[in-house]
Amino acid sequence: MRTDYCAELSEKDVSKEVILCGWANSYRDHGGVIFIDLRDKSGIVQLVCDPADSPEAHRVATEVRDEYVLIAKGRVRLRGEGLENPKLKTGKIEVVVSELTIENRSEPTPFTLGDESVNEEIRLKYRYLDLRTKKSYETFKLRSKAAIAARNFLDANGFLEVETPILTKSTPEGARDYLVPSRLYPGEFYALPQSPQLFKQLLMVAGFDRYFQIAKCFRDEDLRADRQPEFTQIDVEMSFCTQEEVIELAEGLVKTIFAAVGISVETPFARITYKEAMESYGSDKPDLRFDMKLVDVIDIFENTELKVFKEIARYKKLNRIKALPVKKGENLTRKEIDYLTEFVAKFGAKGLAWVKVKENLELQGPIVKFLSEEEKSELIKRCEVEPGDLIFFGAGEKRVVLEYMGRLRDKLGEMLNLKDPSVYKFLWVVDFPMFEIEEGQVKIKALHHPFTMPKNIDEEDIEEMTSLAYDMVVNGVELGGGSIRIHKREIQQKVFEILGIGEEEAKEKFGFLLDALKFGAPPHGGFAIGFDRLVMLLSKRDNIRDVIAFPKTQKAQCLLTGAPGPVDPQQLKELHLRIKEPKKV
Q: How far, in Å, CA of 384 to CA of 397, rounded?
């Protein structure tokens, strides 16, 4: 129906007769001559409907309104000196229309397209209108390029793309499963996969050697800006590999994807252990775009007159006293410091001590009067501060202190404009603990998943047992991760024993995997990269919903289709289900 796309026309097309299709982005009547900005996926070009050129085209143009679907035939000409529009790619030309067809009319839109200040719920309800904008199109064009680059890279490296089941068995993987009732087997359910984890391991047992998939995954969990109930990941698994080989491949994949959208990434990525990440940054996904580390100062306060610190310093293994030096931090106002104190209180802090470094390295602040000259001198030396700097302190139980001091560091990075959006700082966090014990719980959990290979399976203290697991982090975002898997049945059984999973439970939940491990399972490992998060970073979007064509809200609803919603009673009957109304409180 068209000869050209709107924004692909240029001065070289002057005098060319063209047929264009698209939407009326805007229209203007200038004393009888009507100008229409016609928009398609490529951009905008100006149409001129002059009664002197075509009375009929001009007549039709008088009926045009925003978002009408148009087909226009005409001739390209230069706009002329002083009439050019530098804001448009096609700003030096226009198309004089000889024939104009209104292919479809549009009602007035419920919001101005491209206005991101409009309530997000309205934009999601009319998502197809929200997607009409140039910015949205460019985002999904970038997403497509990233997916193609990933497929090409993995194909070139000998990986086979294999689809794994969507309807599968419910297995514990850390989040709630979405369940699907079976009509043929009353009272039994399928589960939507949280990841293809078990199937990709089975493919390694099958001898496929190298597998990948751009996979849909599902988790029934509380949502936030960078999470959705259904999401996409680039899923990769390989046999006869070491952790180093997996990391090298993952870096090559990410470098290729970034290059496909015009961004250069340097490899190899930095690497730190989980312990170092937590102790130095208070996070297992630290943002390294700014250099601000936590400093351990608990030993300085062993004999201090500051009673709270002295009591905490008695138990070095369980507690922490961390200092956070902030360059030029004295510029923070008392109001801002009070705000930060309230901020860290949300994460368990009972207060936030601080001192400012004045001229001649004199310390000033509420706690200074309790500090000896030796303590002040050691603080200045260890924190490597200069006049104009500020030091925050966190003190208390280890887990809580690391949590809120890490949050404080991240918040200061925002407040002091230290997070350059044009910079991508990658790193690997390695040597994760194999197990974790949740606060207030007795039950031991696998930190990643129970199929991760321990580094030191014979370690008696399970809190000291680490794993061959690794996370890829960029700018404070966990982009993905993976592990070397357990391929020996006896190691898998020992891990199950530590987790309190008995033989019967293991057989019921993971029997098919355990059976497979009996038949010559090769050493194998892999990783998965959150594709939606990756695209969010590449497109510099702040919300993951902006990079998913038809996303859910933070309440896991689709405002466009009305899902989830009620179903016909007959459908429930066929599934042998009955709705039990929740009790009114």
A: 25
Cβ distance 390 to 326 under 8 Å?
Answer: yes
Torsion of CA 532, 535, 540, 544, to 10 degrees: -20
Sheet holding 353-357, edge to edge: 295-296, 319-326, 390-397, 353-357, 363-364
Place of tokens 């369940």: 179
**What pTM value is reported for the model?**
0.91
Q: From residue 58, how far is each of 3, 52, 208, 557 by CA, in Å?
A: 22, 9, 64, 45
Question: In angstroms, rounded to a whole number, what is the distance separating the alpha carbons of residues 23 and 4?
Answer: 15
The dihedral over CA atoms of 397, 399, 403, 405, expressed in degrees to the nearest 10, equals 40
Query: Which tokens hold the place of 71?
Result: 């087909």
CA within 13 Å, CB half, 261: 23
Q: Check: CB of residue 330 under 8 Å from CB of residue 389.
A: yes
User: How confident is the model over 140-182, as pLDDT tens digits?
Assistant: 999 999 999 999 999 999 999 999 999 999 876 667 899 999 9
Three-state secondary-structure class, residue 82: coil
Domains of the chain: 6-104 (2.40.50.140), 136-272+427-548 (3.30.930.10), 290-418 (3.30.1360.30)
pLDDT single digits (tens) 44-72: 999 999 999 999 999 999 999 999 999 99
Pairing label, strands 426-430, 270-273:
parallel
CA dihedral 332, 334, 337, 343 (to 10 degrees): -130
